[in-house]
Amino acid sequence: MVSIPFNRAALVGNEKPYMEAALLSGRIMGNGEYTRRCEILLSRLTRTKHALLTTSCTSALEMAALLLDLAPGDEVIVPSFAFVSTANAFVVHGATPVFADIRPDTLNLDEKGVEAHITKRTRAIVALHYGGVACEMGVLSEIAQRHGLLLIEDNAHGLSGAYHGHALGSFGHLAALSFHETKNYTCGEGGALLINEEAFRARAEILREKGTNRQAFFRGEVDKYSWVDLGSSYVVSDILAAMLLAQLECFEQIFQKRRCLWERYRTGLASWAEARGVQMPVVPAHCQQAYHLFYLLMPSEALRDRFIEYMRDHGIHVVFHYLPLHLSQMGRRFGGQGGDCPVTESACGRLVRLPLYYGLKEEEQQHILQTVADFTW
Ligand SMILES: Cc1ncc(COP(=O)(O)O)c(C=O)c1O
Question: Which of 197, 217, 248 is the last residue of a domain?
Fold first, then answer.
């Protein structure tokens, strides 16, 4: 039987030679030549002032949390429809998460509901661009500015996405990227912190280096390095940076391939979905999406679960996504209850993602399309 995984990491260009060169150079710790080249490319691609490569998106979000200098009781507004790290990175560093609901169309933070969550203790809003389709950044930026809050983009999905022509990651004071195996551009595990607020740059460099001024030492700015601030081990090995660089150099090629696959799903499933009340991804005209996910919102959870089983029986691995954070064991500790975020609660139970990866062949995708079309109820 055909077997189609949900994801396979892409190998598109110079991954092997670059990694081998990094290995043979004998200089494989972080902050080397490949890291530097990735960071230059990332800040160019996203039009952000500075990019710091990190061990993961989670690490980058944790650095953002540290840069917030949170005091006990400080609140951070996060969408409940999110990955654990979107909230946990802030909670680990002392924040109280305040869970907000999403829009029913894009499944992004509902900008209209955000202000109701702002209190005297609110410090930041985290905007997650689900699937690499932008949140309403114009509205969110205005709200953040009016209330003196920091805006942080969790852009784990959206490198290559844009909002009104401006790259995602360039709107927040800070933004986090992921290069985990499941992401469009990957090095297995990796991430980056994008910094748009100059005031954060120097401290971010120290936080990433275990709280030391080691980078300043390497640049010859101080004669020894020492413990100067909080921090942790957020520097990624140059071997992984070498792999990432090879993928970033194929930025457009990967983007176009994913676009083609995504569009084929959309065209191929449009009438099937419409006839059955299945919702497909909604991409507002002013958003250039990153083609990170192709998902279906089935009419009910029972049907979604049956669909996942049916697809597995046909050798195709399709998967659900986030569980509502406010209803998780941890979320409930912060007061989360059923009914707090109704759109999230409904979407989480009905969403299923189809395989979408660089190496997916056209005939495999046709097989997926046919198998989906044969699913009836
Ligand atoms: C929205 C979002 N943020 C953060 C993360 C964490 O990324 P990483 O595995 O790079 O820490 C993920 C992981 O998939 C994610 O989906």
Answer: 248
Average pLDDT value for residue range 130-135 = 98
Expressed in angstroms and rounded, the spacing between residue 218 Cα and the centre of ligand 1 is: 31
- Which residue owns the Cα nearest ligand 1 atom 16? 83
| 242-300: pLDDT as tens digits | 999 999 999 999 999 999 999 999 999 999 999 999 999 999 999 999 999 999 999 99
How many Å lie between the centroid of ligand 1 and the Cα of residue 97?
17
Question: At residue 1, does pLDDT exceed 90?
Answer: no
Read off the DSSP letter of residue 199.
G
Q: How far is the first Cα of the chain from the last one, in angstroms, to the nearest whole number?
A: 24
Return the ∠ at Cα 260 (arms to 256 and 262), rounded to 5°: 115
Report field, pTM of the whole predicted structure over 0.85: yes
Which ligand 1 atom lies nearest to the CA of residue 189?
Answer: 10
Separation of alpha carbons 210 and 222, rounded Å: 17
Ligand 1 site residues (CB inside 6 A) read 56-58, 82-83, 85-86, 128, 154, 156, 178, 180, 191
**Alpha-carbon Rg for the chain in angstroms:** 21
**Ligand 1 center–CA 126 separation, angstroms:** 13
Question: Residue 171 and residue 125: Cα distance in Å, rounded?
Answer: 12
The DSSP-derived string for 106-143 is: T-SB-HHHHGGG--TTEEEEEEE-GGGPPP-HHHHHHH
Residues 221 and 241 in one domain: yes
Q: What is the CATH number of the domain that holds 327?
A: 3.90.1150.10
Structure token digits, residue 21: 């060169």
Residue 1 domain-assigned (yes or no) = no
Comparing CA positions, the residue from 47, 43, 28, 29 lying closest to residue 193 is 43
**Distance between Cα 217 and ligand 1 center (Å):** 32
How far is residue 141's CA from residue 173's CA, in Å, rounded to a whole number? 10
Query: Mutation test of ligand 1: which of 59, 62, 76, 83 has the most ligand atoms closer than 8 Å to its C-beta?
Result: 83
Q: Are residues 319 and 199 in the same domain?
A: no
